[in-house]
Amino acid sequence: MDDWDQTPEADWIRLAKAGDKEAFGNLVKAYMRQAYYVALGFLGSHDDALDASQEAFVRAYDAMPTFDSSKRFFTWYYAILRNHCLNMLRRKTIQPIPFSEVDRAIPENVAAEGGADDAIAHSEAHSVIWGAIWRLDPDDRQLIVARDILGTPYALLAELLDVPMGTVMSRLYHARRRLRSAVEGLL
Amino acid sequence: MNHELTEQESMLLGKALEGVLGEGERRELEALLERRPELRKEFQSLKDVREATMAMNFKKPPEETWDRYWAGVYARLERGIAWLLISLGAALVIAFAAYHAVLAFIEDTSSPLLLKIAIAGLVLGGAILLVSVIREKLVLRKTDKYREVIR
Q: Cα(A43)–Cα(A54) distance, rounded to whole angstroms?
């Protein structure tokens, strides 16, 4: 028997597959923060991220009997969440957050070293880049948010995206190029 | 100027941007930048953008968000069961009512045959239309490139 089978998560999964809501609740509590931030990377607003991540957990619960216990729960859940977020974006129930809301709603730009003018310029540059992030393709956006803003390790990104680590680097590179193109001339 | 990169080259530049290049890869990158000097400027601008994105942060949601999170999911699970029961109950009630309405309609001798045929046509036409729309949706779903995003 694998060590994994002895972990509390393995127990929660076994019980949740049999319909145990309390066990499923433990899985939700273990991954709710990660789930919320993934959804935030796709959708860009607190309420939508909360709604999407919770709804994806409901869908995951309904699909638990089909879950392959040899896989990691969050990797499987991530696919459900991503699909749900893309679906929400596709249905246009979610609008990209307007630039006017970006600066005050989401980022806490680090204070720039130097004088007040530098700090303002720095903050403005960040606002422009932030606005451009939200105009990117959702997958590009989520990748940059996951890596740069949330600090998700490359290995976890590779696992979630189900691609080799080198491909994660390559995708990040292309996403960064598209972001750079989007801010070109604005800075 | 050709900016197209091979998968290997973009992986190399990607690794360099992320700061995870091995020694051999570093030499490979230098050789690439020698061959393609225009990439050096692009590489620097990508580094600048990365530095800016790395410096950003999400505001943390209030702690109560996490305290109430599971309760929110649980409520949705309960509501899902409630909706399922309501839908099943409603379907049974509608089926029962429809069955008796059809029986009463057939047994009703006071209505002229022509009216019965007309109403039967209306009902049948509606049913065909409904089936057709459902079938179209299903076919569209199978060929839709976004199919995988629908769950």
A: 14
Give me the residue from A59, A109, A168 closest to B55, CB to CB.
A109
Q: From CA A129, how far away is CA B51, in angstroms rounded?
A: 11
CA distance B24 to B17: 16
Q: How far apart are CA A31 and CA B57, in angstroms?
A: 20
**How does residue B44 score in pLDDT terms, banded at 50, 70 and 90?**
confident
Q: What's the per-residue H, E or C state across chain A?
A: CCHHHHCHHHHHHHHHHCCCHHHHHHHHHHHHHHHHHHHHHHHCCHHHHHHHHHHHHHHHHHHHHHCCCCCCHHHHHHHHHHHHHHHHHHCCCCCCCCHHHHHHHCECCCCCCCCHHHHHHHHHHHHHHHHHHCCCCHHHHHHHHHHHHCCCCHHHHHHHHCCCHHHHHHHHHHHHHHHHHHHCCCC
Question: In this structure, are A30 and A74 located in the same domain?
Answer: yes
B68 touches chain A (CB under 8 A): no
User: Is A154 inside a domain boundary?
Assistant: yes
CB distance from B72 to chain A under 8 Å? yes
Mean pLDDT of chain A: 82
How many domains would you assign to chain A? 2
A165 plus A86 within the same structural domain: no
Task: Grade residue A62 by pLDDT with cuts at 50, 70 and 90.
Answer: very high
- Tell me the residue type at B113: L
Boundaries of domain holding A73: 3-90
Based on the domain organization, do A66 and A121 belong to the same domain?
Answer: no
Give the nearest chain B residue to A170 (CA atoms): B11
Evaluate whether residue A97 is within a structural domain. no
User: Are A118 and A61 in a shared domain?
Assistant: no
In this predicted structure, the answer to whether residue B36 has a pLDDT above a threshold of 90 is: no
Other C-beta atoms lying within 10 Å of the C-beta of residue A121: 14
User: How large a percentage of chain B has pLDDT more than 70?
Assistant: 91
Domain shared by A17 and A65, yes or no: yes
Does A85 share its domain with A117?
no
Please report, for the domain that includes residue A165, its CATH number.
1.10.10.10
